[in-house]
Amino acid sequence: MVRIEGEDFAGHGPVSVYFGVKGAKAVVIESPWLITVLTPQAEEPATVDIEVRFGDGTTLELPQAYTYEEEPGIVLRPEIGGG
């Protein structure tokens, strides 16, 4: 979950949040100064802009505001020369 803090978030209608070109999920205006979201999945590690779009046309841009990092995981390697 990501917290976007600012001011005057209430009273602009519904809100959508984008991380790069992908829309966030579970976007909630918690208060006039706080929006919480679940980030969309990234295809690769990168730093992206965040854009907050309100129903009344108000748009807030946060350049290079979020960095996706590579997640550690399991690497499967084929067995070579088994036998």
Alpha-carbon Rg, integer: 18 Å
Domains (count): 1
CATH topology: Immunoglobulin-like
Q: Sketch the topology as an H/E string, one letter per element.
A: EEEEEEE
Distance between the termini: 48 Å
The second-level CATH architecture is Sandwich
Number of helices: 0
Question: How many β-strand stretches?
Answer: 7
Question: What would your notes on this structure say?
Answer:
The chain is an all-beta fold and 83 residues long. It has a single domain, classed as Immunoglobulin-like, CATH 2.60.40.10. Helix content is 0%, strand content 51%. It has strands at 2-5, 15-19, 22-23, 25-31, 34-38, 46-54, 59-68. The protein has a 4-stranded antiparallel beta sheet, with no helix packed on it. A hairpin with a 4-residue loop joins strand 6 (46-54) and strand 7 (59-68).
